[in-house]
Amino acid sequence: MNPMVKMVLTLAVISAGAAAALSAANRATADKIKAAAEAKAARAVQKIFPDCAAPRKSEAKSPTGETVVVYHCPGGRTCFSFSSNADKAISRPYSGTVKAMIGVDGKGEIVGLRIIQQSETPGLGNKIVEDKFLDQFKGKSVSANWKVRKDDPAGVIDGLSGATISSRTVTSLVAAALRFHEASLKDAAPGGAPDAPGAAPAAPAAPGCGHGPHAAPRPAPGAPGCGATAPGPGYDNRRSVKNPERFGPKRPAFRDARRIMKREMDQQRQRAREVGAEQDGRPVRPEAPSPGPEGGQ
Amino acid sequence: MSSLRLFTNGFWRENAAMVLLLGMCPTLAVTTSAFNGMGMGLATLVVLLGSNVVISAIAGFIPKKVRIPSYIVVIATLVTLVDMFMAAYAQDLHASLGLFIPLIVVNCIILGRAEAFASRNGIGPSILDALGMGLGFTTTLFLLGGVREILGNGTLTVFEYKETVIRYLVFSPESVSPILVMILAPGAFITLGFFIALKNYIDGARST
After folding, report:
1. For residue B59, what are the domain limits?
2. Cα A291 from Cα A277, distance rounded (Å)
3. Which of B33, B78, B84, B174 should one mutate to test binding to chain A, selecting the residue with the greatest count of A CBs within 10 A?
4. With an 8 Å Cβ cutoff, is B155 touching chain A?
């Protein structure tokens, strides 16, 4: 046989065998994997709301159009999983996707939080799954200053040492999830949802503002309307440089220095002439030199 | 070579991490705790066993020029199969080891053993080679992870499954601040360097 044909045939046969094995395995395991993921989510709900045995499920769309499965428990409590792709404001994780199950009570405060998916660095970033880190989030609501203390001393979250990016991701993810909850879940929580025929707790649907039945009238700083999305803190990895001026306007090239200095001195002289003897205390400083149209990089 | 020698080869004389210097990516990236090192080692062992068996069986039919792509397809398929079945039938194990499974595809030990050993030997010796290499790799990674974890975090995690965590506190991070760099990537290079130096020193002392 022609050796070329033999090579092609061998590779084709091996690849076909691999494809067959994989598709068979996929068929055998896909349902199991999906069921396992659902069971895992349900277990996370159980951990957060132990008394909520049979939560009602519904679906909603996140700001980026991801499907969010929401588990409704009695008392206006909701539990939903939110991934780091669900909102553009979420700071990117160190690697892969981070997904959290977040339990919120009728007042909009976090009851429990569990990370159900992550692939951060073992030993550093994957410490975001530990209770020691996650317990900080409990009892806080959307109005908290959702920043890591390293970025903002007034922030409410202590980041993990060596894992600032992962800490930022979780913090901004929770902030985005709470905004999502405020905007699209809170109104629907107390039995007012159209897709809840009788399954919802028998609470009188609060007219107007859709706070939960146990909701204390929250001051709602800066967000007077109900369901209004509070402009929360967004994170952007690319802008977290401590000194952005360093990367600020392009500096003129050295070979333009003479010309620019001359122009600056002219300007300064002219300004001094204009100001004259008034001396209004304004420091005479040249404006930031901008390279002229002929001045290259 | 006797069977025993074949088996012990991977532990010392041809230790994948310290002598062949293969599989550096998982060696350096994953050994942030003793358990993580062991998990990576065991996952590698399983795939190595499978790939050595399959490749020693089919090597005779594969033309020399396309052997590497063929081996890669076999290895990648095996890794994906292991990943799928673990996700379906052993979720908790998958949750703690799942991270390492896709990393195995890029592990040169598998391809290295397929090329250097399994394609030239029968199934029996290939199984022994895979066991020796895999367990030797696991032991090295466990020790590497242990040293790094103790120095960098003050703890030693031996076991982590579901809610069961066996973790020893070597020193408390409050009293002695740990050497954080040991957990980070440079710490892996430093520790591996000391490991190789120690091994060479022992070899030198034995031969004289």
Report:
1. 3-207
2. 31
3. B84
4. no
